[in-house]
Write a structure and sequence with these properties.
The chain is an alpha/beta fold and about 170 residues long. It folds into two domains: about 110 residues, 5'-nuclease (Rossmann fold), CATH 3.40.50.1010; about 50 residues, no CATH class. Helix content is about 55%, strand content about 10%. The protein has ten helices and five strands. The chain has a five-stranded parallel β-sheet with strand order 3-2-1-4-5. Helix 9 runs antiparallel to helix 10. It is globular, with a radius of gyration of 15 Å.
Length: about 170
């Protein structure tokens, strides 16, 4: 974990909202500030600003420059992805996403990036989340999002979490 401040992409927020939002609350309590761009909440039906506050997730406002940059961007990234990237880059946040094009752009710009499931790996490592709860949540995410969170990804996640539990 490079940064102690994380910004969530919509896909990660949706995955946890549909499986177990408690994980994001645990991350906010034990790993560092968990943030979401206010613009992004309009893209996510499962959670609103009050839910974020209740979970300890900080809703951040993009600057006008960041919004303008995201609005004029081109390529495979959505406006929300470009905005998430601009905030992470400018503020030194770690970007948490399962979106491969966003991950590649983060890496290109030297923005620290994590997969959504990596938050749970760190929580298990630090003993704030049981391996059983992490695996159940990951399997719930896979059931709702099998195209991007594949059986192969879940298999590797399960093995990693179990290895941490054995220590």
């Amino acid at each position: 974990m490079v940064s102690k401040i994380f910004i969530l992409d919509a896909n990660v927020l949706i995955d946890y909202a549909e499986s177990d939002l408690r994980v994001l609350s645990l991350a906010a309590s034990h790993l560092g500030q968990v943030s979401v761009a206010s613009h992004l909440l309009g893209e996510v039906d499962q959670i609103d600003e009050q839910d974020c506050r209740d979970l300890g997730i900080v809703v951040v406002e993009a600057t006008m420059d960041q919004v303008a940059e995201a609005a004029t961007g081109r390529g495979s990234l959505s406006f929300e992805d470009r905005l998430c990237l601009a905030i992470a880059r400018d503020e030194g946040y770690s970007c948490v996403t399962n979106d491969r094009p966003l991950r590649l752009k983060c890496e290109e710009l030297n923005v620290h990036v994590l997969w959504g499931l990596e938050l749970m790996i760190e929580l298990v490592r630090r003993k704030h989340l049981s391996s059983q709860a992490a695996i159940a949540t990951a399997e719930g995410i896979h059931a709702r999002n099998p195209q991007y969170i594949t059986a192969n990804i879940i298999g590797r996640f399960r093995a990693k979490v179990r290895s941490l539990s054995a220590k």
